Amino acid sequence: MKERLVIFDTTLRDGEQSPGASMTKEEKIRVARQLERMKVDVIEAGFAAASPGDFDAIRAIAEAIKESTVCSLARANENDIRRAGEAIRPAAKGRIHTFIATSPIHMEKKLRMTPDQVVEQAVKAIGWAREYTDDVEFSAEDAGRSELDFLCRIFEAVIKAGATTINVPDTVGYNLPGQFAETIRQLVARVPGADKVVWSVHCHNDLGLAVANSLAAVLVGARQVECTINGLGERAGNASLEEIVMAVRTRADIFPVETGVDTTQIVPASKLVSQITGYPVQPNKAVVGANAFAHESGIHQDGVLKHRETYEIMRAEDVGWTQNKLVLGKHSGRNAFKTRLAELGIELAGDEALNAAFARFKELADKKHEIFDEDLQALVSDETVTPEDEHYKLVYSRVCSETGETPQAAVTLTVGGAEHKAGAAGSGPVDATFRAIESVAKSGSELLLYSVNAITTGTDAQGEVTVRLARGGRIVNGNGADTDIVIASAKAYLNALNKLHSAGEKVNPQGDV
Ligand code: KIV
Ligand code: ZN
């Protein structure tokens, strides 16, 4: 029997710290359900003290998730920890993850605390957290640039105070694999009580080494890896879950551990997170990129046809790749629709939501005769939008574009329920539509990104549009899908405006305390 490698997913917390990747409560619940389906051990559902919205989302996830442990991040102060404790209260298994910075630069310049004060605060934090749960994780932020002797001292103190998982983050992605492994090896060997806790690592990808550093640590004793779907996360992101899990599984000859992850759920999870956050997956991304299992050169194709293992170390179906499957069509009934959604793990809240989704499916099937799983995912995304998320709503859109003429757009929107009409010219039909919307919304936001992807193949495919807007230091992504890309673009733009409208102020856990 191999030892268990605990997979701690932080897509909903560190992943959400990527610019514009903030998710609504409903979106977070969908991601959490997919993580549970994938049998992730721990889901870091958010940072409860960040905002009332974050608190509510963690609470809702704690209520919905039964198998995975649900965790909230908290800085090492009493208010944060009590918020985290309240948020995870309904969880079948709940964890509080508290942290404080330990590197000289962070202690001196950011916290303005002495090392003695940092140790004292960390010990107090564990005490507060233990009032809510026996499952308490402690992280030494910026451990990758901290002094080893100080790490030994603070870890010994928090273990005595009751921490059960000790996490060693390479917060700024500065370490190299050999060096990071040596740090972990020394900590496990030197810290009194090391054998009573789970050693964890949390690596950022600034030098493209997050996965390599995490795996090097596993080889010397780390038994939890913190990671995210598609490697989402602050700056260059975190270690990617799919790469960690598949490396451990594919090189079972090297790793003395195994994960409990159902790998066939990896690609659906990757697609869901990409679709919700608007962060596309690069085609050559390991495991989940569209080309990860595509053989282009003749020699490779020939080899694979003769014997698959000549050029493949993993099987596409083991990570959840399926052929674009024709699943439903114009004549499919409500029951077939409901059954396929259930097979995809999509649960709609009640008959009303199912009926609305089915009506949209019929509309889509009229325009596009073959409906694939990806179409259903996009369609259901629209369905989880709540009335509070829809301050701006598209009622009507028309564009006129002809050779040699300036494109013109006309839109009708509701803003807080009241109808407004507007028209505008633009350099293209999308530009004209955005100008018409903006003339009503007057958001004053800056467009940072506009991208269109075909969800499936063929010219009748739905276009999935991502729009990234910035205003007053806040960045949001909006998504929209439709067979008409101008309409998809209008939906994405309005989705982003709604996010700017609804999201309140949010505290970044790693900013000033
Ligand atoms: O990168 C980091 O140090 C973190 C901690 C809060 C664990 O995200
Ligand atoms: Zn991090």
Topology:
Blueprint: E1 3-4, E2 6-9, H1 25-37, E3 42-47, H2 52-64, E4 69-75, H3 78-87, E5 94-101, H4 104-111, H5 115-130, E6 136-141, H6 148-161, E7 165-170, H7 177-190, E8 198-203, H8 210-219, E9 224-227, H9 241-250, E10 257-258, H10 266-277, H11 298-306, E11 326-329, H12 334-343, H13 350-367, E12 370-372, H14 373-383, E13 392-400, E14 408-415, E15 418-425, H15 429-441, E16 446-454, E17 463-471, E18 474-482, H16 485-502
Parallel strand pairs: 1-10, 2-3, 2-9, 3-4, 4-5, 5-6, 6-7, 7-8, 8-9
Antiparallel strand pairs: 11-12, 13-14, 14-15, 16-17, 17-18
The protein binds 3-methyl-2-oxobutanoic acid and zinc ion.
Mean pLDDT: 92
- Spell out which ligands are present: 3-methyl-2-oxobutanoic acid, zinc ion
Strand content: 15-25%
Q: What is the distance, rounded to the nearest whole angstrom, between the alpha carbons of the first and last residues?
A: 44 Å
User: Could you say what the CATH architecture of the largest domain is?
Assistant: Alpha-Beta Barrel
Gross morphology is: globular
Biggest sheet character: 8 strands, parallel, barrel
CATH homologous superfamily placement of the largest domain: Aldolase class I
- Which regions contain 5 or more consecutive residues with pLDDT less than 50? none
Number of strands: 18
The CATH C-level name of the largest domain is Alpha Beta
According to CATH, the fold-level topology of the largest domain is: TIM Barrel
Domains (count): 4
Helix coverage percent: 25-40%
| SSE class | alpha/beta
So how many helices? 16
Q: What strand order characterises the main sheet?
A: 2-3-4-5-6-7-8-9
Q: C-alpha Rg, in Å?
A: 24 Å
